[in-house]
Amino acid sequence: MTEKNRFSLDRRRFLVVSAGTGAGLTLGVLLPGCDGGQAAAPAPAPSGPGKAGSQLLSAQTFEPNAFVRISGDNRVTVIVKHVEMGQGAYTGLATLVAEELDAAWSQVQVEAAPADPARYNNLFWGKIQGTGGSTSMANSWEQMRKAGAAARAMLVAAAAKAWAVPEDEITVSEGVLSHAAGDHQASFGDFAERAAQQPVPGEVMLKDPEEFRLIGTPVPRKDSKAKTNGTARFTQDVQLPGMLTALVAHPPRFGAKLKSFDAAKAKAVPGVQQVVQIPTGVAVLAGDFWSAKKGRDALRIEWDESDAFNQGTPELLAQYRELALKPGNVARDEGDTEAALRAPGHKTLQAEMTFPYLAHAAMEPMNCVLQRNDKGVEIWNGAQFQTPDQRAVAAVFGIAPEQVKINMLYAGGSFGRRANPQSDYVSEAAQIVKASDSRVPVKLVWTREDDMRAGYYRPMYLHRMEAALDREGNPVAWRQRVVGQSIAAGSAFEGMLVKDGVDVTSVEGAANLPYAIPNLRIELHTTQLPVPVQWWRSVGSTHTAFAVETFIDRLAAETGRDPLEFRRTLLKKHPRHLAVLELAADKAGWGESLGEMRGRGIAVHESFNSYVAQVAEVSVHADNSFSVDRVVIAVDCGIAVNPDVVRAQMEGGMGYGLSAALSSEITFEAGSVVQSNFNDYQVLRIGQMPEVEVYIVPSAQPPSGVGEPATPVIAPAVANALRAATGRYFERLPLALSA
Amino acid sequence: MIEFTLNGTPRQLDVAPDTPLLWALRDSLGLTGTKYGCGIAQCGACTVHLQGTPIRSCVTPVSAAAGKAVTTIEGLQLSSARAVQAAWESLDVVQCGYCQSGQIMSAVALLSRKPEPTDKDIDEAMAGNICRCNTYARIRAAIKQASKALS
After folding, report:
1. Residue A47 pLDDT > 90
2. Which of A89, A206, B76, B84 is deepest in the core (most CB within 10 A)?
């Protein structure tokens, strides 16, 4: 170990809690803000978010406030501050602690952290606890390893004292402390009590990557068993004494208001208990879902639609097209793009790319359980944005955010949706409880139709692309105008994300174009519409990667150059882009013939500091349909903490993007959302899933994200493959061979 | 009063006969392993076995189960079920996990009917089960692994 591995620990920031109860003694490594004098009782065998939430709360025994807890029965509990929504955060963050602690993977279990931004904030987001932007691993990388290393040091100190041997003669492996001479051996549990009495070390040593024995290996997921036998608990599964289920009748169009309603028939439905007006509609509360649904169906409501959104998708596109002809706010400007585009002898190419609104359509439609009590409010939710949700609910009730307690459940997918800047569905649950003056828990359930029509879509976008090639076929100018709504504007994130009139999430992936082109101009027109919009897995890259990567392919094709070779030439200063590009191309057999009506396409894109290249192979069929047969993915995400989870995120992230590439779109007719459910909002099914191969670039860089970066790359790879197969260019998503 | 056999045990239920079996299971009987995903038999998250056949419980009225045997994820006993769940775990198929009860119920039914399914059999039998995490490649692999373990 070298000096660079030495990390100081501010003792005031790491406190020890030792608490004796019949259930055993615990060692906790705590972060600032904890009350060190407050006894923390050990958790009653928690594993998974649900148990850390409702059971503990109902027993009112324990409020976890540590990253690691070691109990007398030799269990190591890692407390994870990020939601587990499929991305593997529980497994990954537990791996970091177990690595530095030298615990056995089998003794490690995971518990969800409570909502407390002072201790469990996302280190990249200031004082906000939340999950997003593929940051869980990256922001926790040092924090969780330090927690594990500090706990290990204290166990070693306790053993050294008990055995009267020097600390450096003690080794730790697989959860066992041993004296080098072989005369002493003990488990973590044996020393949990005495370790808690040791002083917190002033500094800890973290391992060199070559010393890792868990990091970099495919340790099994901690949530596999519960999610395979039906016992994993999601918000939808929360059942509490006296709980009511609420369904809400929402306005038929965005911006419509409630004029009047008649609840007589709804109240006559057996099981319906209350009907209340809330700011977002009319809520029906009943003893169970089906009664609430029947009650909602029986409501008679008149809406005032005079100020409601009334446009259709074609009209919006026409307005966007007009806007794209004019200069927008500048996101990046290098050289003299206008002059280079018009210079004599330059060949100019243009394209207009369009992208529809998209729903997240997580398998678990949005829902939230909320109860008002004497202390404040208690929430049960697979929360992705704990701190904003606390603030929003506190505002509804006029209480302090700390009085809002969140019990974490597994999230049945999210893809960004549960990180809502307005805390929309959580606030709605709060409004129902407030309006009904309920003291029992209320579970707000959205049907699939409610979920799909509630908005907060990936915004619709139009890109106007223009580029110039010189006489030798080198790209010398590139202008990209993006038109669409801002996700950040009007939210608490505006100050952080909107700069000089440019929402950075609207142009990410375009404004940081890696290709060496001397004259560059990226512009943005931000439109204002009442359609609520939000981040959707990989955010700006969902559209910018397609626009950039298909247009680059087009420039290559127009000059008769191989798309891989063309990219290589322009990416000389970007070794990480190049490495994934070469790896994917090599493994895919780039350049080998595929035969008639088949094609291979390549795309590369960086998002969230991770680099992904994909090669797609497609077949075009006689009926003008096509299939995606094989996808080869190469990724550089720094150190792959768990290569199997990285592979899973590459496979799944690609598949998520493939749904949008092939079929998903939300459209409007006279202000109404056309789609309602999986019958008309088409998503990928098993028969459409291509063969997938994933290759990981070895790296010693700190880990970056893997949840999102595979998603934006597949659509341009498939479009480029279709171009190779058909000779045609594709400028809209979802892709269609027939015009 | 509706009577049926649930996971091997006779049950009586006093709910409106048009209540979907899904909500009877979840809200009346407390078995939450079977999930709500769409309510219109499009996503398969609610798949259970009725007399051994996979059905979408979200569109099946509880009255249709009268006198019959219902099996949910909580009551899987078949050898094919053990093989499927073992394969699911060993390949770490799950991500968010919300659809997986339904996926497993469909996979178990497939292997009970056809112990050595082809790729086409798998795609057809699993076509009604959506996974938004897109774990499809691993679902295919796990079904094949379970099939191998059973033979």
Report:
1. no
2. B84
* Residue keyed to tokens 């959205």: A446
Nearest residue in chain B measured CA to CA from A645: B92
We report the CATH number of the domain holding residue B15 as 3.10.20.30
**How far A231 CA sits from the closest chain B CA (Å)?**
6
pLDDT digits (tens, 9 = 90+) for A69-82: 998 899 999 999 99
Domains in chain A, please, with CATH?
3-228 (3.30.365.10), 236-306+366-445 (3.30.365.10), 313-357+457-726 (3.30.365.10)
User: How confident is the model over B20-41, as pLDDT tens digits?
Assistant: 999 999 999 999 999 999 999 9
| Residues 351-390 of chain A whose Cβ lies under 8 A from any Cβ of chain B | 361-365
Concatenated DSSP letters for A527-579? E--SS-B---TTTTHHHHHHHHHHHHHHHHHHTT--HHHHHHHHTTT-HHHHH
How many CB pairs below 8 Å do chains A and B form together? 178
Q: How confident is the model at residue A11 (pLDDT cuts 50, 70, 90)?
A: very low
- 3-class SS at A428? helix
> Is residue A308 classed as helix, strand or coil in its secondary structure?
coil
Share of chain A above pLDDT 90, in %: 86
Query: Is residue B12 domain-shared with residue B60, that is, in the same domain?
Result: yes
Nearest CA in chain A to B84: A228
Contacts of B9 (CB under 8 A, 6+ apart): none
**pLDDT, tens digit, 9 for 90 and up, residues A325-382:** 999 999 999 999 999 999 999 999 999 999 999 999 999 999 999 999 999 999 999 9
Mutate to test the interface with A, among B32, B72, B91, B134 (most CBs of A within 10 A): B134
Query: Do A577 and A606 contact (CB within 8 A), yes or no?
Result: yes
- Here the CATH number for the domain that contains residue B122 is 1.10.150.120
**Chain B, nearest residue to A646 by Cα:** B95
pLDDT category at A44 given cuts 50, 70, 90 is very low
B66 and B85 part of one domain: no
Distance from CA of A268 to the nearest CA of B (A): 14
Judgement on whether residues B87 and B37 belong to the same structural domain of the protein? no
Q: Check pLDDT > 80 for residue A160.
A: yes
pLDDT of residue A202: 79
Q: Are both B64 and B89 inside the same structural domain?
A: no
What part of A 183-222 touches B (C-beta under 8 Å)?
218, 220-221
Overall domain count for chain B: 2
> Mind telling me how many Å the CA of A290 is from chain B's nearest CA?
7
The pTM (predicted TM-score) of the whole model is 0.94
Contact A40, A28 (CB under 8 A): yes
* Cα(A565)–Cα(A575) distance, integer angstroms: 15
Chain B residues with CB inside 8 Å of A88's CB? 95
B102 and B114, same domain (yes or no): yes
Q: Does B86 lie in the same domain as B60?
A: no
* Same-domain pairing of B117 and B133: yes
List the domain range (segments joined by +) for residue B16. Answer: 2-75
